[in-house]
Design a protein that fits this description.
The complex is a heterodimer of chains A (112) and B (118). Chain A is an all-beta fold. Chain A has no helices and eleven strands. In chain B, strand 7 and strand 8 form a beta hairpin. Classes of the chains: A mainly beta (112), B mainly beta (118).
Chain lengths: 112, 118
Amino acid sequence: KQEVTQIPAALSVPEGENLVLNCSFTDSAIYNLQWFRQDPGKGLTSLLLIQSSQREQTSGRLNASLDKSSGRSTLYIAASQPGDSATYLCAVVPEYGNKLVFGAGTILRVKS
Amino acid sequence: DVKVTQSSRYLVKRTGEKVFLECVQDMDHENMFWYRQDPGLGLRLIYFSYDVKMKEKGDIPEGYSVSREKKERFSLILESASTNQTSMYLCASSFDAFTSGGFTDTQYFGPGTRLTVL
C-alpha cells in the first residue's frame, strides 16, 4: 500500500529565506507526483506535476525534484514571502494511475 | 482558467437530513471527484466519475452516493447525515480522457464546503 509522508509537519521561517519541503513515498512504482498548495479553509491549487520519467519541474520561485528510485521529492521555494504561507501537499499517482495518494501536508509560515 | 465551483462554502445540517453538495466545472473535463478532508487523516476519496452517468467508489463511499447527469455537474448526496460526516468536502475535476479515472492529469479543486452535522 502506497504511503506518502511529508516532513516537517510545520515550518516557520523569516521572509527571504530559501526553504525545502520534503516528501517521501513507500512504493517507487509511480506514474507521477504532484505538489499542491492549500490556503486556510480553501481548496487545493496545483503547483507542479512531475512525470515519473522527469527529474524536476520549475515554476517561478518553485522547483520540485523527483528521485523515484529512493522514493523522495523535494519542493524548493526561493526567496520566501509572507504570501507563501499555506499548507503544501504532496501526492503521488501509482503506476496504474488509479488513484491519488496524498501526504498530510507541511504547514508553512513565512514571517515578515 | 479552470473554474470549479461548489454550491456552498458553509453548511449546517441536522442528523438524519438528506444533504446535497453540488459541484460545477466549466472546462469540459471528463473526470470529477469528491474528497473529504479531516485533520490527521488528510484527503480521502469518496467517489469519482469518469463520464456522464458513470461513477466509481473511492476509499470511503459508505454513507454517500453521487449523481452525474450532466458532464459539468457532479453531486454528492448524504442520504441520512450523521455527525461523523462533519468535514470539509472538496470537489475536483481533471481532463485526462486516456486513462481510467483521470488521476494522472492535474486535478483542479473547488473552494470546498465546510459541512457541520449537528
